[in-house]
Design brief:
Residues 257-268, 620-629 have a biased composition (Low complexity). It is found in: Nucleus. Keywords: Nucleus. The protein has 759 residues and is mainly alpha-helical. It has three domains: 2-287, no CATH class; 289-471, no CATH class; 537-755, no CATH class. The protein is built from 39 helices and two strands. It has a two-stranded antiparallel ribbon. Helix 4 packs antiparallel against helix 8 (100-112), helix 7 (87-95) runs antiparallel to helix 19 (276-288) and helix 10 crosses helix 12. It binds a DNA duplex (12 and 13 nucleotides) through residues 473, 476, 478-483, 487-491, 494, 525, 528-529, 532, 562, 564-569, 573-577, 580.
DNA sequence: GAGTTTGAAACT
DNA sequence: CAGTTTCAAACTC
């Protein structure tokens, strides 16, 4: 386990910037620890506190600078801010038990678990007043969410989650829960009294008896779902420094393991050191970082070059795969969803179904473009589920399972959770860099699944999707005859998904059985054009967001990255990728006679009518609404958000005329151009084929690693900055240094995981 | 459903 | 980089 964990960790570290420094520091810290223990201060503390000195290992963890710096933010930061925090940082903070105050607690917990709870609390207060505060908050929160600890189906998850994770990991360190709890409460993650209970009760011996472990686990799994596999492994990575051993022991003691294969997975999950916040983080990051990688050792082993591509592919593919395999379980899942004993499986399968449905439905082939929808998180789940497939081949990774579970319970069992999560975190998710691959299909599919669940058979549903819930456009699959679905001609392939049943392709190689071929081809194409699989249409955050004006949710600033080359269609038909993507033409376009209803290349897009248009959009289901969002209409949450956030704030923005050239810039900045002009010839645009990413992403929201990612090389884009009055806040300069386009970066990166250096 | 049109993707 | 070919979606009938 350790070896594997290390390997994983190493791989992970490379990905995560945060880890890198950490590792190097560990040794140094460790060396310094000895001195620290000898220091007068340390002795003094020891005298004051009953807590026994913590093992050097713990301390080393504690010392991590990152945790120190970030931790305060966690406590103090409001929900919004927290959401925007770097995931990695956050994860790091939260996951890192190393805070000084905590460390002592931790040590105490380990050594003195038998001590009365009060004592622990007192100690805790002494050590960290903030911890106590948080604890209180947690309690309050818990009060709000009462649930029966014994009931697996109840909201217990949170508690179970905490127990599983924290108990095993931290062995009754209440303080640890604090940050988490707060975070969780903010996010709608349930940290409840149980948590407290768990904290106080953390007696390993008791654990099994107090609550049904399995049920807890299963419940916990829900929460765990949010965690990314990466995190899961990450702890392990850190394990050397962290209480790996302790964790393991605790696990053994607490976790009954009786659970079968799944149980193992669960166990793994439970062992995750991460905390609640982490869970959120993970969840968010899931898209960005391929969980599958971690899950699948084989993948890890793969050369990094391949890994990115591979993973990206796999995820997508997996989704389909899973779907197919698990689709039949779906109905069963529904009926059994609430069954505690089978929660895990059910959840997992269920999730798979969701994804499956989406996939099967064939909706949204253009995954690349996929936008961040509320479902994004769902997508993540799907991916996770997809990764489940990976499990088959290589690893019994738990990480895979957890997400699906979350989906399950959240949706099926706990409406509240769903609501809280979705509303509070949707934004986060949206903000998150999503994998390009998430396809509309999946997104809409999820919804469709929900709908379907209620009434119809899978086939019916599928058919329904194919026909296009949204409209005719989104539900088709490929129909390739000669390309073998291994070229970008193939929408499935281009979207990064395997062809599925609905496809009418011939000699299709875009199937799991030809995975190697697919990956190789994909890699080849990527080598030719790194952004080949990136979203064609990117939605950049508008200038407002850049300028820091959050008040308005940015206008739609989506544009086709490369621009169209229409000659005859006038950019008024779906032949035009811009039009198809629901975005206006930009400077990048070489189109002739552009009449793009979403915005003309020359910037002459009808603005006067824009306002009306926008209003109409918001009030109606007009596909145009999706333009900026580029999300399939099907998603309820999304729909809501759209109405709310819709960038059509463009109305608020100065008329295009005021920014004559702005529209020109690449997808990233053009704001003004974004207006959906209403033209005499205007035709209601079709549901966007492509989805833009990051519409709401704030600069700050973007993880640094993403910011640092190399920008798109292959795309022809004009420099946004050229026309911009106010340069972007210097966050991430693209390596090229031409534009500070974090937006630009975001566009490319998010959608295309493989491109990111972190992979 | 067959045929045409179109423009992206691929190739040279 | 430009021109040509191939391809499959979009469109028309």
């Amino acid at each position: 386990m350790e070896e594997g964990g290390e390997i994983i960790c190493s791989a992970k570290e490379e990905k995560e910037v945060m880890d890198t420094p950490k590792r190097s520091k560990n040794t140094q810290i460790a060396t310094s620890i000895g001195k620290f223990e000898e220091s007068p201060v340390f002795n003094f503390l020891n005298n004051l506190s009953p807590i026994k000195p913590v093992k050097p290992m713990h301390i080393s963890q504690t010392i991590n600078p990152l945790s120190f710096t970030t931790l305060p933010a966690v406590f103090a930061s409001p929900h919004v801010s927290s959401l925007r925090e770097s995931r990695f940082l956050r994860r790091h903070q939260l996951s890192d038990p190393s805070k000084p105050e905590f460390s002592s607690d931790e040590g105490m917990a380990v050594d003195k678990s038998s001590e009365p709870t009060k004592k622990l609390d007192e100690q805790k207060e002494n050590l960290d007043p903030r911890a106590s505060e948080f604890e209180k908050n947690v309690v309050e929160f818990g009060e709000n969410f009462n649930y029966d600890c014994n009931s697996p189906n109840s909201n217990l998850r949170s508690s179970s989650y905490l127990k599983t994770k924290h108990m095993a990991e931290y062995a009754c360190n209440p303080s640890r829960f604090v940050p988490f709890g707060e975070e969780g409460s903010q996010r709608g993650i349930y940290v409840s009294e149980v948590n407290q209970e768990g904290i106080t009760q953390i007696d390993p011996n008791k654990e099994p008896s107090s609550c049904d472990w399995e049920s807890l686990i299963s419940d916990a799994s829900d929460l765990l779902v949010f965690e990314s596999p990466n995190d899961y492994k990450k702890p392990i990575d850190q394990g050397s420094s962290l209480c790996e051993n302790d964790m393991q022991k605790n696990l053994d003691a607490f976790a009954p393991n009786e659970q079968t294969g799944e149980g193992n997975e669960q166990e793994n999950l439970s062992t995750q050191p991460g905390d609640g916040s982490e869970m959120m983080v993970n969840f968010e990051t899931n898209d960005m970082i391929d969980a599958s990688l971690l899950n699948d050792p084989s993948e890890k082993m793969d050369s990094e070059n391949l890994s990115g591509l591979y993973r990206g592919m796999r995820r997508r593919c997996l989704v389909f795969d899973m779907s197919g395999a698990r689709s039949k379980h779906f109905d069963d899942m529904q009926s059994d969803a609430n069954v505690p004993t089978q929660d895990q499986q059910l959840v997992l399968e269920k999730t798979g179904n969701d994804s499956t449905r989406c996939v099967l439905s064939g909706i949204g082939l253009h995954l690349n473009a996929l936008a961040t929808t509320p479902k994004d998180y769902k997508i993540a789940n799907h991916e996770a589920s997809a990764s489940g497939r990976l499990q088959i081949s290589t690893t019994p990774s738990s990480s895979v399972n957890f997400q699906p579970q979350t989906t399950n319970q959240d949706f099926s069992n706990n409406n509240l959770a769903i609501v809280a999560f979705s509303e509070q975190q949707i934004e986060t998710f949206e903000n998150c860099v999503l994998p390009p691959m998430e396809d509309a299909c999946q997104v809409s599919g999820y919804i469709a699944n929900e709908e379907i669940n209620q009434s119809s058979s899978p086939k019916k549903k599928k058919r329904r999707l194919e026909q296009g819930v949204e409209g005719e456009s989104s539900c088709k699959r490929c129909n390739c005859k000669k390309s073998k679905c291994l070229k970008l001609y193939c929408e499935c392939f281009a979207a990064g998904v395997y062809c599925v049943e609905p496809c009418a392709c011939m000699d299709c190689f875009n199937k799991p059985i030809h995975e190697d071929t697919v990956l190789a081809t994909r890699k080849q194409i990527e080598s030719r054009n790194p952004l080949a699989f990136a979203p064609k249409v990117v939605r950049g955050s508008d200038s407002l967001s850049e300028t820091g004006d959050d008040s308005s949710k940015t206008p739609a600033s989506a544009r086709h990255k490369r621009g169209c080359n229409c000659k005859k269609s006038g950019c008024l038909k779906k032949y035009c990728e811009c039009y198809q993507g629901g975005v206006g033409c930009s400077i990048n376009c070489r189109c002739e006679g552009c009449k793009n209803a979403f915005g003309r290349k020359d910037g002459s897009g009808v603005i006067g009518t824009e306002l009306e248009f926008g209003e109409d959009e918001t009030t109606t289901e007009n596909p145009l609404n999706l333009n900026t969002e580029s999300v399939p209409p099907a998603t309820p949450l999304r729909a809501v958000r759209q109405s709310v956030q819709r960038p059509f704030s463009s109305k608020k923005k100065p008329p295009r005329s005021s920014f004559p050239s702005i529209g020109s810039s690449s997808s990233v900045f053009y704001d003004s151009s974004q207006s959906y002009g209403k033209q005499s010839s205007f035709q209601p645009p079709p549901p966007p084929k492509f989805v833009e990413h990051f519409e709401t992403i704030g600069e700050d929201e973007i993880p640094e690693f993403l910011q640092c990612v190399s920008p798109i090389s292959g795309i022809k884009m004009s420099s946004p900055n050229q026309k911009r009055v106010s340069p972007p806040h210097g966050v991430g300069m693209s390596p090229g240094g031409l534009r500070s386009s974090r937006k630009l970066i975001l566009q490319s990166i998010p959608s295309f995981p493989s491109l990111t250096p972190n992979q």
